[in-house]
Batch of 3 targets.
Target 1
Amino acid sequence: MGEYQEDSDFNDLLDSDSGDDVQSEDGRVDLLDIEDLTITGTSSSSKSKMLEGISLLDEMLPPEIEMDDDPESDDEEKNARIAQKKQEAAENRKKLQKMLHTVAPGIDLFRTIVDGENGFKYFNMETLDLEKDFDYARRGKLLGHGFSNERISEVLSDRLEFVRHLMPEAQSVLLCDQADFRAIMNFLFYSISVCTDSKLGELMTKAFFDLRKNYGFKWNLTLKHVFCCLLNFGADEAAIFSNRFYQKFLEKHIDAVRNSGQKVSKKYELPDLPFFIKKRRVGGDSAGSSEDLQQFTVMNPGNFKFCVEKFLILLTDFSAGQPGHLEFRYRDNWSDQIIFLYVLLIVASDKRAIRNYKVREAIMTGLHYHLDSFSSVQWYWGPDKENQPKTTDGFKDFNHANVCKSLIILLNEFFPGENCPETINWEVVEDHSFKVTFRKNNTSDHHLNMLHRLSLVPPSYRGNQLRKYLAFMYLQTIAETVYVSPTHVDVFDIIEIPELCDELSPGLRLIVKAKNYDVIMTIVELYDIIIGHEPVTDFTADKIEAIQRIQKNVLQWIQKKLPNMNRINIDDQRSIKGMQLSEYLDIVCGRWQTHCQRRA
């Protein structure tokens, strides 16, 4: 590239002397991550334009590419000037990201054990033993086939050798009966969860899926497998593995199942963990040496994040690809399946996974399958055999035992400040101008985490019903009103609560008057989700009056409280956010008006 020039115009700054596309060292064009892009405001001065342009360009270029830097040049003054510009660009980028503040902080779900480092708490690739941990008892038969003890130990410990001898697409000497199959499937599943080698992980994953497809022996994915891996990652047990929490908020569902005539325990009980995990958790003479019990494998952040992400993708891929081998539901008792969906959404909110588009896509796919896996009777009426309402035109209508409400109750009760305070990954403040959490003692989740969780729900028919209900509960959380949980949610549920429409709650009014534009933006988005984006189903003639009422009493009232946009100071963080909010309100109001006019 040519010599760096201090151009005053942003367009000139982006031009290249050679006209060639910027490529990485391996010749591939570097693509942008959508979350790495930021939108900069306009400035009246050319100097501000130049700095903003440099910031945007620096955001777009990969870190390893030198911007207009000639490595063969000996001009120290020029190189110093370039370094200074890069430093300024990096500072501007951080400042803009902070000002826009559009990325959820996530929760810190996985606890650090040793010196603030994450890692594997109970097992890793080296400590997993097919024979000791999974009762694989085929060594004697293998000796009869001509294998030596040393060779058998090598095959069973080296994953590459193990998969090569396993031959999942054909018959293998390693696998003979149901016990062998179950031991090998468990061994592969847990090995995949702690594998940091991407190629070896893909090989084991393929073997895992091929075994499941090609053999008729029974092996189903259960909550036991999910919890075992998450606890090994160091997940906060109060957040995902609390019997008391699930018993409290699944009580009504368990009662409905019992009233339907199905035999079920009085209280929900979490599944027992595998024996090899139990002995590591409890300890004792029978559990082996203290070194085995206390073993903790420290992982560098990159490898740990890789394992968590690959594990989530494995869960969702298996759910969608092997639906006949899931053990989450027995007739009308879907407690395990509801917990599985809850766990997926909570783990996907972890700070390590929250910005990974592959995880988001996988979670959305998994949720889509599981929501659609319920029968129509279960989705609308649940296990209730008596209360099965219908609409005036004869279609099924929701009752209080439906699937959607059962899941929403769990998700809405995830209050990190109350249930698992050590997962909080943000600063909790009392000042309404800067607060990000709500309810008594600010124990709720971060409002941006709420929005992120809503974004993971698939845009399907049932997904939209779930998203509206969850947005309705989150809106009540921010408004700090008494919770109302109807059978399902539409625009009429908002206008029936005065604190959300005609007489806004003190909590909402304080947020608006304190100019907490971040939270106001979230509030507007929650209203928009509940109203809906489908012109045919969400803007019917009977809903027009209610939508216009919300627009007048909520959105237009917020607009009146915003500062004059003609006097925006782009150097002020709050002014920039106010400008964003004003533009977003214009978009939402314009869309609502357009759809309402078409139906009028």
Target 2
Amino acid sequence: MREIIDKFFPDNWVVAYYLGFTVDLAEQWAPYKAAKSALLQYTLNDESVLSTKNKHIQNLKILNKQVNHYLKEGVLTEEYILSHSSKLMHCMRDCNVTLKWLLLSRLSAVKRVIEVVTADLSMEALLELLMNVAQFERNLKGKLEVMLEKKDATWQEDKMQAAVRMNELAEYFSGTKPLSRGVQKNEGYMQWFQQMEQQINSLNLGDEKGSSRKIQQLTQALEDVEQYHQIEGNLQIKVFLNETRQYLRHMSYTVNLQQDILQRIARITDFSYAWLCMDDFLDLMQAKIRREPVSVRLLESTILKLSSIMDIPLLRIIESDSPDLESVSEYYSKELVKYVRRVLQVIPHAVFMLLDEVAELQSSSFKEIPEKLKRDSIKDYACLEERHRLAALTHEISVFTKGVLIMEKTFVGLIEVDPKKLLEDGIRKELVNKISNILHKYLNFKDGTLEDFIRRIDELGAKLTSFKQAFEYIQDFIGLYGLKIWQEEMTRVIGFNIDLEASTFLPMQQALDTYQSANVPIPKLVCESPNSLTFMGVLLIELLKLCDIKKNVYIEWMHGW
């Protein structure tokens, strides 16, 4: 058992085996005395756990700084990726190892170990590393895919440029080229450069090992020839030789760029073990988006990283030629999209909190400007402070929505995620909740008098009108059709509550389903009245009371009671 522990579990005891499910060896090996003793003595002793935790905590800061450097514009160029591929892969591996250890170790069943692991662990720093490394992996993988796609063209271009320079140097030493007048003809140099041109032209991309070895020899030969007479003191020739070496070096990097690098990245970046851990980051993600709406772009990469959970089960389903491929893919795709919606709902929620203040400003602080206005009274209608506050609120709303709109359309499994559609659904969801709450709050008649009824209806009308005006006001800043959305959702809320009230007398389930939506559900609010299910029932009962024929008379020519 000691050998097994040393070989496979020297610093890890929580093992993820399928779709985010984990097994804690401290718990599973408890019935086996030798296994439990070896695990507790070497892997789970306080000193070993603390040492491993401190190493990964220290790595958090170092790796975050390193990955942030790679995310800067202009760092991950093709030349840099080719020349530092091992360094980039090493960084990616370290990031994923640290993430995996810190996330899985928190799931241990041993209370003492959990206390050691979670002490001094900053979940914000862990989330930052997760989002940064997800973006880093996405950028690197995208560039590698492009480079692999044009690998042949890049190889041929570099080979042609290197051969052309060797040909020009051969012509230079022939003494026949116009630009080489005054240069002493040198048959040896001319033949040598011609042979170099032939050697470069003979390089074959298919023979990877042979070409790589040959390129190293040619590069060394070009470095050695610089020391010879007639070349050492000629700056133009040295420039040509240096450019040729650069092309050869680029060819060496290109020939070593293999398709299997994408498979290695997929294995390193597998994130399926965290499927059950992502809920721990929900509040932190929402708080980060609330502070920095632009960080939504990093969230997009994080979700794409999380979508790797589908790779393993789908691989087995494909291998078994099962007809369940589409249904399984669709299920996990929908679960991922649901998670995205839950995280991004913070933006519509924040927008509507600001919208309440916009509605309050527009309804109470601004005076209606008459058609004709005296110049002396312009100041009274200017409301400069209020308009400045309105502009500030509008800017905050536009910044929030910009965070979602900068996201790109992307596929999460089988489902295409459209950021504008996500924003619209989120706005609709908040609007439906807002309208339902307003109607539920104001359509509540306690006094039972006509004056109270009229007052409540007037208050409801004023509240809905002010909110509608505010919603129309911000439509240009959030890139949506405000009035259209308002009318559609108002119709849905009223229709749903009417049918819900009628369902106490008639079977209306089919009609109710036509109003409901999985992405924009209409809330079922609990009504205070014992005789009604919804505010529409309360309104109807109150109208029947006020129009009771025992107390009222209907006057036909006035069309009212």
Target 3
Amino acid sequence: MRMMMLSLARAAARAVGHQSVHQHSLPQLSQPGVRRWLSLSAATSRKVNDLYRPGLQYNRDIPQPVEHQALDVDAVLAEHASDRVWTDDEISQLHYDHALFTWNAHDNVSPNALQMVRAEGVYFWDQHGHRYMDFNSMAMCSNHGHSPDQSVVDAIVEQLQTAPYAYPGMFITPIRAKLSKLLSQIFPGDLNTFLFPSTGAEANETAVRIARLMTGRHKVLTGYRSYHGASVATASMTGDFRRFPVEQGSTGHSHFFGPYPYGFSFGNTQQEVVKNSLDYLQERIESDGPHTIAAIVLESIVGTNGILKPPKGYLEGVQSLCHQHGILFICDEVMAGFGRTGKMFGFCHADVQPDVVTFAKGVNGAFLPLGGVAVCDRVRDHFRKNNVSIGSTYNSHPVVLASAYAALQYFLRNRLTEHAAAMEPVLQAGLNRLLDNHPSVKQARCTGLFGGFDLQKNTKGDFIAKVTEPPTPALLAFRKVVAEGHSCCWCCCCRRYCCCCCCVVPSCFKADFFSNSQKKSAATVCRGTVYHDAGSQRVYQSTPRHQRGPDQRRH
């Protein structure tokens, strides 16, 4: 009764603008005072409740329940019977009516979108029977190709039949324990402990939350030439144009230029580039306030923003700055991880040991959605005593973990990392031929089987399109060429940075893939761009950016 009176008294006090009534002050109130507050509270309640009393005249319409048509289950199931044959036109129309493409305006993509009806090894087929070489590993993720080893299929089926789901916040599953042990043996140093969200974006968001909780700081520094995911937080971490629509929804993100900005150069030699870019980063840290920065997050090798391997000494310098200021050093290995670059992880090309590493894609060849976060022992020990404060329904999903456990064993047995390293010269030679034969190719490079080539509109090196412009007609024409079956090579082209990514399937790429037919199909990629002065002498050569003249580095 006392608590009820206190609650009512507080409500009445707020209604008349009085200060909050504290528990210790209630005994001093006179009985008439309490009655007055209770009376005010009842009056306020009547004014509110009158709006919803039946039979009274209202000043606004009250929404009425909507009657939904009952589902005809039998008719629906009959329409989707397993023996029904769907025509290609039906599939296209159904997709247009009931689905949306990611990233792009639906109507820009739909007319020339391929129907992928079958896939095997490094190839996939469209609805017309045309075969394409997957020159991008789909979303840089199909590291095992499009034919899962039978051991992976068996592991998925067995887990489905044994324990298809377990709540990750309360239960131990054997598959999570075994996969964590295997990963602790694969990761270098003391990266021994793991969380398993569902995507790379979720992995990066988890890593940032870990850093903020552990350090008590809020800011996160990332590069402008970066991509870290499509959630609000990870898109805000992203440095390219994909952050523009969402960055107002997440705070604490600050961006800096890495060693290879577009509009200017940090130097003419690798030593100058490393020194000047690290001096610049040091000043950014001091300007932002090192005591406010929880983490620096870097793609160990920049992915869709250019396939850029940092110069020797750069990652080491970033790690040193992190240690100096008590900042967590986080490496995003979502694209580069698990052998694609010719080493197990992209950061293994440098002499660094990150505090946290995020991964996805290659961990199970993207057969099922899986991300991951690896933390060092120091971070692990902190969260043994403190809440990690993150989780989700599908975190550590047993079936998905089973796919990764089997896929990683296949990956190790077949030495896919070593194979990617051995194939690097083959891929680079093919890229160099594009550079030599097509004036629209500005530069080409690869690390392992993680590569790409830049496209230019003219010999001045102008971009094909600006980030604020709609997709250039040249790229739309290229997509149409591919959709009509005139090319047997599929790759991904970023309209802003004019970089075609060539992330070939590590498990399937062989030295003889650059046959005459494959050379022809790769050349189609270049012919799909508009080159305004194709008769001019091409001035860009296959040389590292830091070795180019000032006019070449400008773009």
